[in-house]
């Protein structure tokens, strides 16, 4: 037993030499960081020269960083900030970042109603506003123009509070799809125009029902009828099928015989259809 254990634990001379070398290597690896610290002293950085040079540089605040791309000599003139062309903003001393933020604000329906509204723009510094304020001209005291919603073009619509170019185009597309508006609150059916938007502009609107484009229901095709957002495909098919089976509709009451048409739907399309 002792002999076999002794044989198991015994090592050869070659193995012993290898073990000694391994131990030496481990010790050397552990000593390397200490030797490096002794041989390579960290140099102490002297900030005196740096501070001397830095003191010679002109002081810069956060606003002066934005001024880098501004004109050296801004030209001041009376202006209305609403939809002012970019080149005019540049003449006034605005840089490209500031102009982009103003354009983005107005593209989303933003509008300047009084001088102080320009000061609320994050891109306009206090110095910018102080310089521009005497030259801002807004027709705040002028009565708002009343716009015929069935005839207005996009240039007229963007003068409404909260209505930018994107909203103006949506209103025109929806109006053309219907054939016109028969009541003002139909504007709330336009994507993005909620109750808040509607209340802002309703008093600036008028409409003439006579300008609505009307459709002869007895000649209407499926494609003619599907432009109305109030009708489902099943309702359109039912209208045409009933007409094919029973002949032309004589008046609006005849449409009540189409079982799939409810009173709410009929009230929405009444203004758009004629029968002769």
UniProtKB/TrEMBL annotation:
<feature type="transmembrane region" description="Helical">
    <location>
        <begin position="16"/>
        <end position="36"/>
    </location>
</feature>
<dbReference type="InterPro" id="IPR010994">
    <property type="entry name" value="RuvA_2-like"/>
</dbReference>
<dbReference type="GO" id="GO:0015627">
    <property type="term" value="C:type II protein secretion system complex"/>
</dbReference>
<dbReference type="Pfam" id="PF12836">
    <property type="entry name" value="HHH_3"/>
</dbReference>
<protein>
    <recommendedName>
        <fullName>Helix-hairpin-helix domain-containing protein</fullName>
    </recommendedName>
</protein>
<keyword id="KW-0472">Membrane</keyword>
<keyword id="KW-1133">Transmembrane helix</keyword>
<dbReference type="GO" id="GO:0015628">
    <property type="term" value="P:protein secretion by the type II secretion system"/>
</dbReference>
<dbReference type="InterPro" id="IPR051675">
    <property type="entry name" value="Endo/Exo/Phosphatase_dom_1"/>
</dbReference>
<keyword id="KW-0812">Transmembrane</keyword>
């Amino acid at each position: 037993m002792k002999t076999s254990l002794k044989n198991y634990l015994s090592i050869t001379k070659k193995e012993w030499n290898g073990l000694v070398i391994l131990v030496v290597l481990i010790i050397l690896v552990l000593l390397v960081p200490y030797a490096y610290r002794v041989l390579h002293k960290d140099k102490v950085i002297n900030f005196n020269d740096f501070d001397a040079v830095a003191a010679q540089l002109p002081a810069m605040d956060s606003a002066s960083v934005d001024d880098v791309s501004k004109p050296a000599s801004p030209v001041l003139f009376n202006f209305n900030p609403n939809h002012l062309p970019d080149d005019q903003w540049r003449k006034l001393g605005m840089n490209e970042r500031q102009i982009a933020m103003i354009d983005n604000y107005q593209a989303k329906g933003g509008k300047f109603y009084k001088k102080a509204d320009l000061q609320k723009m994050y891109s306009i510094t206090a110095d910018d506003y102080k310089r521009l304020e005497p030259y801002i001209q807004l027709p705040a005291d002028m009565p708002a123009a009343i716009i015929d919603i069935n005839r207005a073009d996009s240039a007229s619509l963007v003068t409404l509070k909260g209505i930018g170019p994107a909203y103006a185009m949506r209103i025109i597309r929806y109006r053309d799809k219907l054939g016109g508006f028969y009541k003002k609150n139909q504007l709330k059916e336009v994507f993005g125009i909620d109750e808040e938007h509607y209340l802002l502009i309703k008093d600036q609107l008028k409409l003439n029902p006579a300008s609505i484009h009307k459709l002869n229901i007895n000649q209407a095709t499926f494609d003619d009828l599907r432009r109305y957002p109030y009708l489902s495909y099943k309702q359109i098919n039912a209208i045409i099928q009933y007409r094919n089976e029973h002949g032309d509709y004589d008046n609006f009451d005849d449409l009540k015989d189409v079982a799939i048409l409810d009173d709410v739907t009929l009230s929405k399309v009444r203004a758009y259809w004629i029968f002769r």
